[in-house]
Amino acid sequence: MSHPHSPALPAALLPDELLALASDQERQEMGHYRRLAFGFLPFGRGISRLMATLGIECERRLGDIHRQARDLAAGASASESSAGPDRAGRAGSGKTICLITGRGQALAVLKHAEAWAEYAVRVAMHLQEVNATPCLQPLLLGLLAQKQAERHILAELVTAYDGQEAEDARLASRDWPRGWLAGARRLPGQPSG
Fold this sequence. Notes:
Layout: H1 15-39, H2 45-72, H3 75-81, H4 84-89, H5 103-129, H6 137-162, H7 168-172
């Protein structure tokens, strides 16, 4: 599915182009979630930890993308993978960080994060649709499943904060489950349970 106002996009992308787009998207999201994790610290550590976890998941997916690029020896993406962690650490470093201090501000930022997650799902769907390389299919399907899980978690969080009877302290300090993405994909080398 393409945006109605976008020019015609190619029916298929080369593997290195596809991996470069996925890498750039993950890098942007990682920076976004890291800024949110820092921004939510004054409001609630539970939400801050959730955003940090989302950023860590982006970093893991970025590593998977770089490994796949290395395995395919995909030209520019393979040489970029050696510089991946450094570039990833600087992602969005020029963006401002807004410290969240109140419920209204938190709800607005969470709704924006939910919209960002919806966009990420659409990007992942598009990458999966334009993929013409069978060996990238598992990576892209896993990426899509995790993006859908992120969107679902953020939608639940927005719903919890949008209610009139919700208590800020209870919601903000809630410890979100560590394995919330376990249903989407098991991470290699992670102990189960």
